[in-house]
Amino acid sequence: MKRSGSNFARVLIVFLILWFGRTVNSATVSPTNYFIIVTGGELLEGVYPDAHTSFITRTLLPLGLRCVGSMIVDDDRDDIKSALSYATNKTSLIIVTGGLGPTDNDITRETLSDFTGIQLRKNPDLIEQMEKRLNTPREKLRDNLIKQTMVPVSGGYLKNPAGTAAALIFEASGYEIIALPGPPRELRRIVTDELLPYLSKKYGFHPPKLTRTVRFIGLGQSQIDDTLKKVLKIDPDIIVTSLFEYGRVDFFFSMKNDTPENRNRLDELVRKIKDHFGSAVYSTDNHTLEDVVSYNLEQKNIRAIVADAAGGFFIKKIQESDHFRNILIIAVSAATNKKLAVHLKLDSDRWEKLKTPREQAEFIATGLVAGKEKILGICIGEPVKKADGYSVTVAINLAGGFSETFEASIFDLSDTSLFNLTTQILDRLRRRLIP
Fold first, then answer.
1. Taking the model in full, what pTM does it have?
2. How far apart are CA 94 and CA 69, in angstroms?
3. 35 in the Ramachandran plot: left (φ > 0), alpha (ψ -120 to 50) or beta?
4. Which of 141, 238, 239, 289 has a CA between 20 and 30 Å from the CA of residue 116?
């Protein structure tokens, strides 16, 4: 009996040591894989495409983190929990997007709390930030706004520089869940400004590569890749990756070691690419097409007025650029060309004589800049159904400068097609504005 008890004690001690070691390791060893859960019924209905996955994976790649899966689920507690159960069995780091806002269907916060068993509490610092942001004392803040200041007691939060909903960190036993707000402008700022430093500090991640980004437009991804391999003949130790999105192509050129010699090699490669591809390259410094166009307008002291009869998507996208918001005077959206003309109080007698969408778009664009200087008028006409999709007339008029009208073709009226339309319009502007 004594011997049997002694053996049992030894086995128990070994088990506890192994278990304790496993627990410590799960909390301290850096994860190399992660899983993304994107919430939102509108994504499942095709109202919006999932742009979060491509942005997050592209941004975390330099840290050496690999995404092992991405899943879109409805704003439903059971669906989110099922996705979490699957994800936590795949990896120890899970990123969830969406559902942190003030509305009734913003249930991600409470669902994660329930799933992890980690309670939420109001954070006084976040309440103070909200008071300042909204210029409202806390006693007058609505309950649905106060809900956004609730953070996990085990974990914490990441600041949101562009909104009221902070990102949340749930530190559970054996895994960590990071929840990000859904609006693209907010999510992207948090990922670059807050999440990257957080992951680097906590897990000791350091970008293992030196990277240069070259952004193209007007060329296909495979065409660019083929030219890089056959004409420019990229050195084998330079890692090449790429991303195609909405008519724009990003290529990333990376090296494992950040040395002066490697920096010079990548800089020289970027120079050769720009020389070879010319105007097809619109950025080599991570700036978006929206930023490039609006920055050049700003440098020329040109401001913009936009009239959009194609759903207002163009207006929405350009306002994500800080530079565009600086130069945008008026943005008007309406369902038809005629409603735009009425809203802008253009000459109704002249309007009745216009017969074609082209004439209407040009009349509106001219009216936007009439009697003004250094003003760019952009009219995006109402989509006209064709056999193979839609045609949209776009008229551009720079007061005292150039004017241009063109027909853009899109497949349908989805956000993806309208994003491609936005790309076409901005590229036309870029080619006219930049020598």
1. 0.63
2. 10
3. beta
4. 141
